[in-house]
Amino acid sequence: MGDDPALLELLDRCIDTSRRLIGIRPRICYPNEVPVPRPSVKDEADAKAKKEEEGRRLACEAQKRRLAQRKEREKEEQEAQAREGMLGRLSHFFRNVKSAVGLGHVVLTNETLDDIEYADVCGPASQEEKVKPPVTLKSAQAHLSKDTFGDSLRFVNKLYNRAFGKPKTSDRRRVPSHMPFLLQKSIIREIKDHWTKEVQDTSAHRFRHPEDMQFSFSYFHYLINRAKIHPHTLEEIWREYLDANRNGILDENEVLTAASLAHGDAPPEDFVKEVRDCVQPEKREKVREIPTPEGTLRLSETLTPYVTLENLERCPSVRDALVKNVRYETKVELMPETEVTFHMLSDNYNFAWKQMMGTRARRTKFVCINDDMKFPSTAVSQILHELFLSIWPKRSQFELPYHLKNRYAHIDEYNAAQERRQIAAGIAVVILLLIAFVFRAELRALFGFQDIARARAASASQLTHDFQQAQDEEDADENPKAKEANTTPTSPKNKRRTRKASA
């Protein structure tokens, strides 16, 4: 059928398969048209097998090189541990105990990223057949879509055409670049309130769907056209333009700002006075009478209240002029994609090689590599891995060493483990208290609490008894000497001795 591969010959009809229409548009086949021969399935399988074999060879060489580097690192770690001596071995032992008990957040790993990604690249290739998931009625629309991402963009564009109108060709809605975005929660809530059903359907889709509300496209183009369906309210104008010092009231300088915004340009003095009189609340006069010897003194005090948001709402002319003339700030700036690199990584080895080399050369601020491989090959994975190593050859200070990995992959798992540890510790304390209460007599006898108390009491009483006995013996020895001194004749020396004894 000529050079058009999208035309299939069916008996005497030609079917144009390049268009996805509801029906089939027949086309007359001319006798001189020759069908375009297609490569056989066997040739495609052979080419795919050769590409896979070449990729496995490259991956095997890279794996051997990395394993050799790993052995060198392990040797260096062992030498460093040997230099540390006894302290190093003790710290290593306590780390192992902590990891075995479950108190640590990291554990030893026996496999590296290379082993996980290329587990059998040096061995024979597995002959596993890929089982395709069954197509259900619910997922038929998503399966029939050849480009779910593009279909979701077109779906959102149709919704926005109904809400904001169809833009001009020069101002057509463009797709935001693949890069990080900063989103405002209040804007997202407005989108959810306006397209509630579509947002709920998007949340219910487990995978990409042609009728998704694609978030970046929806967010930024809603932000561009937001003023068409969501004009500024008086509260927003008060918060963003009028109340500059955030004190909740308007002073004289801020009243001038309100008059300028309401007029749309430099306001005349008459207009400023009109705005001031309109927003100014009524003055309150307070009269007091004070009796004096000369008579009654009458004091009059005039109070001027502050201008608040409620006073501004009571002035419809100024309020409507503010909403009409306020400037809508541009929240989105269209920029070229000079600082963004985006690649759809395909199965083609040569094409992927050129993409990765271009990424190395450009070194933009943002790099997004989208996995578009239908049949992933280790050769393309090897190219991608080498690109990452060229950009980040060393791990950062926030990454774990090669021989450690996180025990918990998610914060919920960590919190659940902490709760389990606390519950286990509480149960252990309760069990110990129950055992101590039930076997308190045996514990006292085992540890000798009563024997120690009795021994202390006996020792104290024995010491008291011995001291009292010694005192009694000393008194008994002194009394006979005193009696002998009284019976002997008196002499000066005896008198002195008697006095000393009596003393």
**Main sheet record:** 3 strands, antiparallel
Taken in chain order, the helices and strands follow as EEEHHEHHHHHHHHHEEHHEHEHEHHHH
Please tell me what the overall shape is. Answer: flat
Q: Extract low-pLDDT stretches.
A: 1-27, 112-118, 490-503
Strand order of the largest sheet: 1-2-3
Helices, by number, come to 19
Mean pLDDT, all residues: 77
Strand element count: 9
Considering DSSP H and I runs of 4 or more, what fraction of the residues is helical? Answer: 55-70%
Domain Stealth protein CR4 conserved region: 358-410
Biased composition (Basic residues): 493-503
Transmembrane segments: 423-441
Coiled coil: 57-84
Q: What features would you describe in this structure?
A:
- The protein has 503 residues and is mainly alpha-helical.
- Among the domains are: 147-228, no CATH class; 234-325, no CATH class; 337-399, no CATH class.
- It is 56% helix and 9% strand.
- It has helices at 41-84, 86-101, 113-117, 140-144, 148-164, 185-194, 196-204, 215-229, 234-242, 252-263, 269-279, 309-313, 316-325, 349-362, 378-391, 411-438, 440-447, 449-487, 492-502, and strands spanning 7-10, 13-16, 26-28, 106-108, 284-292, 295-303, 340-345, 366-371, 404-406.
- The strands form 4 sheets. It has a 3-stranded antiparallel β-sheet with strand order 1-2-3, with no helix packed on it. A two-stranded antiparallel ribbon has the order 4-9.
- A hairpin with a 2-residue loop joins strand 5 and strand 6 (295-303).
- Helix 5 runs parallel beside helix 8 (215-229) and helix 18 packs antiparallel against helix 19.
- The protein starts with 6 loop residues before the first strand and ends with a helix.
- The relative contact order is 0.07.
